[in-house]
């Protein structure tokens, strides 16, 4: 496709949920012409390949606040965007198998409740009530928050895409961002597979490929892409309300409104982006063993499909939001690991503010790209990157 204009106020690289929310918020702020470049199709990245989990139970206040704001936004999504996400606030339950894991969940619980969210610590009986058919002795306790939940990612991507376009954002599908144009030390444009465009701001929202794109811009970043697998079973009569996550191995699963069990494990393949996003027999057998060990009733259930997608991980578990101090005009909106969907509405808003030079209300030592450029002792970290 030919690009509609030769000059834009900002160009967003990546048409996943983060890039689209950013573009939408920029357009709502009246920022001027905005272009989103997506080299694949809508939802071809992680935004069309995830488990739809939305939780506010985190280890750090910074993440909890972004998640909480995003939950509010997803609750309003139908009214704001005219699409039904089937957002079901039926809770997230973290299971502990040992006293050490339970102590960790207790710490999380303290931070979450200090933020005003009514998370509950459960004993083995409380867990068994929430997960009918749980194998005896499978958990000694857990942490539960009823306002966490699950949604369908596709209407979210589509709704924000339609809303951004209705506000005048150009979304170019099948067009790749190849590299930057820089004059002096500032961004002046972008070279794409459809020619060059002039712009003073480029937003790197390229998900698992954000490291690759930053490096194309001449910037060394610590982002690492890791492929993760996930599956969906045939539909079962509804029996499970919460998303269940096991602390020891990151097993996570929920039952969708169609009755399927959808889940995976938070263990990725070797770092790096390869060609394609395949599924492996090893994942299927490992997942089957983990699921049926926990819930023996799933022993005869058939898997309907399996797929995979890329996490974009950072060393400290926080996303990267803000302008790169080494290159004015280059704004990061990446590093969301396995939880970008649940942070997207709040994160997109912050990225848009960063583009406009407005305060983001984010601590740069926690979320800013400059944090990786200085040696730090006792740097904060978000380690609850499970499920
Ligand atoms: C198996 C799995 C399960 C997950 N489960 C959850 C969950 O339950 N809850 C949750 O919140 N999150 C989950 N996640 C994570 C979540 O999906 C991601 O964090 C989120 O979708 C990231 O959105 P994004 O827009 O940053 O990236 P993406 O959706 O990956 O979008 C980036 C886009 O950039 C495009 N692109 C890359 N390079 C270029 C270029 N040079 N030019 C043009 N376009 C380019 C890609 O084609 C891609 O479409 C999961 C992820 C996976 C893989």
Description of the molecule:
The structure is a single chain. The protein is 29% helix and 26% strand. The protein is built from ten helices and 20 strands. β19 (320-323) and β20 form a beta hairpin. The mean pLDDT is 96. Flavin-adenine dinucleotide binds at residues 13-19, 37-40, 44-47, 49-53, 176-177, 205-209, 213, 228, 230, 264, 309-311, 336, 338-342.
Which SSEs are present, and which pair or pack?
Blueprint: E1 7-8, E2 10-13, H1 17-28, E3 34-38, E4 53-54, H2 61-75, H3 77-81, E5 92-96, H4 99-114, E6 120-123, H5 124-130, E7 141-145, E8 149-150, H6 153-166, E9 170-173, E10 177-183, E11 186-192, E12 195-199, E13 202-204, H7 210-216, E14 224-235, E15 243-246, E16 251-255, E17 260-265, H8 281-294, E18 303-313, E19 320-323, E20 330-334, H9 340-356, H10 364-367
Parallel strand pairs: 1-12, 2-3, 2-13, 3-9, 5-15, 13-20
Antiparallel strand pairs: 4-8, 5-7, 6-7, 10-11, 11-12, 14-17, 14-18, 15-16, 16-17, 19-20
The chain binds flavin-adenine dinucleotide.
Flavin-adenine dinucleotide is lined by residues 13-19, 37-40, 44-47, 49-53, 176-177, 205-209, 213, 228, 230, 264, 309-311, 336, 338-342.
Labels describing this entry:
29% helix; FAD/NAD(P)-binding domain; 387 residues; 10 helices; globular; D-Amino Acid Oxidase, Chain A, domain 2; binds flavin-adenine dinucleotide; alpha/beta; six-stranded mixed β-sheet
